[in-house]
Amino acid sequence: MKEVIATDLGPKAIGPYSQAVRANGFVFVSGQIALDPSTQKLVSGEIMMQTERVLENLKAILGAAGSSLEKVVRTTVFLVDMNEFAAMNEVYARYFREQFPARSTVQAARLPRDVRVEIDVIALA
Fold first, then answer.
1. Which residue of 15, 51, 55, 68 has the fewest C-beta atoms within 10 A of its own C-beta?
2. Residue 19: pLDDT above 90?
3. How far is CA 24 from CA 52, 64, 68, in A?
4. How far apart are CA 10 and CA 48, in angstroms?
5. β-strand 26-32 against 117-124: which pairing, if any?
6. d(C-alpha 69, C-alpha 97), whole Å
7. pTM of whole model > 0.85?
8. What sign for the dihedral angle of Cα 16, 22, 24, 28?
9. E strands present in 1-125
10. What is the pLDDT of residues 78-88, one digit of tens each?
């Protein structure tokens, strides 16, 4: 059984997908970009500001699904420029402190709305 998760605390989906889906004891959160959920506008600026907005969006969606960042088991980080890895990682490390989730980080030629970073997660429900 699967349950679609939707919350006004996270940005609305900008395509045919769900913010998150809860299934079989896991929460699968779609890739989040630096959209401010209250305005649906992009947070412009450098990678650190965008990464913080992305992680706040993930935190809100996980909360709506009855989960949390502490229950994240896997993340995928997409960066437009791998030279920004250290700056992204500095912010990321503020949100994930112990029992770190597994993670992949890849450089992407282009991300939705030309953002600098996108992150998706899988968490325990």
1. 15
2. yes
3. 29, 17, 16
4. 19
5. antiparallel
6. 10
7. yes
8. positive
9. 2-5, 20-23, 26-32, 35-36, 41-42, 72-79, 102-107, 117-124
10. 999 999 999 99
